Amino acid sequence: MQRRKLLNNELERLDIDQFKAIDKTPVVLVLDNVRSLNNIGSVFRTADAFLIKKIYLCGITATPPHKDIHKTALGATESVDWEYRKDTLTLIEELKAHYHCLAIEQTENAMQLQDFQPESGVHYALVLGNEVKGVGQEVVDSCHGCIEIPQFGTKHSLNISVSAGVVAWDFWSKINRK
């Protein structure tokens, strides 16, 4: 069996106009004080891959255009809608009117990701935190709940861009399961 790698032009990807017009996954990502520009760019690329509706960049989280964000986003800052907000907590309070807000964090009584099933017709705001401190406690307190990505090794956390990829894929696959 031949396993020739496909060329980019064989992948039949959307162009930016098609991406903007297509129905999105009912999920927005909120980056709470993410400091690494490479992580931010990587989250943009993941958001593009799984048709995430929007990214909110909060607090110290840098915004496009920036060469280090562009380096990992590879153009996804042009396809994925985004908005900067100074204060994550204020944003969460606004989003709660239309979104079920969930912090991706290790907390008491957090639901394990594999046990969470998105509800049909519900829109979700998923909050991902700073590389060292995670999601701010006041933001965790304001969210409707928390989801934890299970881990089985010696480390206590995943990189924020890896967490975004795991959660975005999980939500996309559960929502689009036929």
Automatic annotation (TrEMBL):
Gene Ontology biological process terms, A to Z: methylation; RNA processing
GO cellular component, one term: cytosol
UniProt cross-references to InterPro entries, sorted A to Z: Alpha/beta_knot_MTases (IPR029028), rRNA_MeTrfase_TrmH (IPR004441), SpoU_MeTrfase (IPR001537), tRNA_m1G_MTases_N (IPR029026)
Domain of life according to the entry: Bacteria
Domain tRNA/rRNA methyltransferase SpoU type: 27-168
UniProtKB keywords: Methyltransferase, Transferase
A GO term for molecular function: RNA binding
Protein name: RNA methyltransferase
Protein's organism: Lentiprolixibacter aurantiacus
